[in-house]
Amino acid sequence: MKIFFATYSVWRVSSILFLLFFAAGLASVACAGVMPPLIPMEDFFRNPESLVFRISPDGNKLAYLKPWENRMNIFVRDIEGGEERRITSATERGVDGFFWKGSDSIAFLMDKNGDENFHVFRVKLDGGEPRELTPFDGVKARVVDDLEEDPRHMLISMNKDNPEVFDVYRCDLETGDMTMIAKNPGNIVGWMTDHDGRLRVAYETDGVNVGILYRPAEDKPFETLRTISYRDDFSPMMFSFDNRNLYVASNLDRDKTAIYSFDPEKNELLDVIYENPDVDVERILSSKKRKVITGAVYTTDRTRCHFFDLDRKKLQDDAEAKFPGYEVAVTGMDDDERRAILAVHDDRLPAAYYLFDRLTGKLEKLGSAMPWLKEEELARMKPIEFKSRDGLAIHGYLTLPGGVEPQNLPAVVIPHGGPSSRNVWGFSPEAQFLANRGAAVLHVNFRGSTGYGKAFWQAGFKQWGRNMQNDISDGVKWLTDSGIADGKRIAIYGASYGGYAALAGAAFTPGLYACAVDYVGISNIFTMYESYPPYWKPMLEMQYEMVGDPVGDKALLEEISPVFHADRINIPLFVAHGANDPRVKKSESDQIVEAVRRAGHDVLYMVKEDEGHGFRNEENIFDFYRAMEGFFRKHLNLR
User: pTM here?
Assistant: First the structure.
């Protein structure tokens, strides 16, 4: 079972998704001979105009995020017209996520200054202030089940009694009372309910093995179904609609994760629901109204769906027919499945949202994330593939500036966070921002990235700073050998693990890059382990096997930790961090900045006191990218 850690998306618009470049389309752009106008930095990174539209269960109202006082807040309006109303008043930190709780109230989550101790709130639409349901300092809350059929309660897990583990509570939304319904014995790292909101599946770990626990009813004890190595995947995704069987994602005895039906009473896999020969299957789609699974989602060069259900396929076909050439995602429907929210996007279009009435065929535009950007002025993102030095096929994405020949360009390589994550095709504000300034932008899905099967993921074990870094370096070589990039004007920039990769690139291959930017990155593997938030401690043994043991692999960790090689970093370096980062402590940046300066080299260092693992407040985002723009303009000669 894969345990994801330290993943980071540098832009918080979660609903917007991110062959070869020798295509006629690129040639036609290049022949135009005129670069698009320089777009202000702020236009790429300012708060979206509107975002994440959700339809109420009864199909009569819409809720969505939009800025108020420079923070993202929740607004609601009737579908059939009427004035919009703001129902939250966040001024220090924007709303992180929200969902309808019935058709007359909304629940939402917020943290404080980026500490990721998310609290759960509820606000009624008939007036009044939001009520905090989890008012406990230093506690992280998660919604286990919103209990759609129970208007008064939700299931919430919290680490209130022990910061390392999460117990499950039934929360009374009217009184705020919390009743514990599952006490964590100390080794449970996740919980799952059936369609009636009954807690029936749990996940336990001893550090390197994951146990899947099951019970037929809440008055029965949990029993272990299977114990597997963390190197494998056996993940229950949802119950069948009769609450008897499970749908699971599994790569047991295979390389690519497939979706199976599974009988927990007999403890046996049944039918393969869907498999893809090239990539892992990520999730399944379902119809709550008709009580059927409707499709499976996977990502090759783009995110794609395979449909089992004719009604759901017809919805997709009808939606795509209205937006030829664009990707269309159905992001929500009302309980009757008559009205659907469509998110329309591509590599040059941030999400635009529409309300689609399936009965009448009426289509109404609801809003856009960034309507001030013009598609024709933005750059195309192309899937690419190259071979690593040891013959492994490495995939990624290349964004080239428009209006110029793709030759001898400055370039920025952006390794993703995680590292158990991957880049995907779609609109990337960073790629567009840099391409608009004349840079080629390369995203590399190096070994250790997820989605390409078990072997590719495991090929990254104990390869931080080694073969994982070599894959990134080989991507740079591919750029220069292709003639696209000027070898003297290449930068490396990343966040979280990507920040580590930027520091590793600067320390271990200093001649490859003209400069580097480390954003909330790791510099010292030993102190990274020591500073993990307490609720990550149960997974430490996995990390020791995946990255390196601080005792048994001491020499390896010294070899791959950039802070011990800071004297080799002789290129310009820009480091940025949030003071309240719970995943990668600010001390990781403090160490590398001090070490590089001690070695006699200057470092541009930015710290934001009201941020965590990446900046979310608009003014801080502007400061970061304004500094990056000046840094790259100076060292890459960007326009």
Answer: 0.93
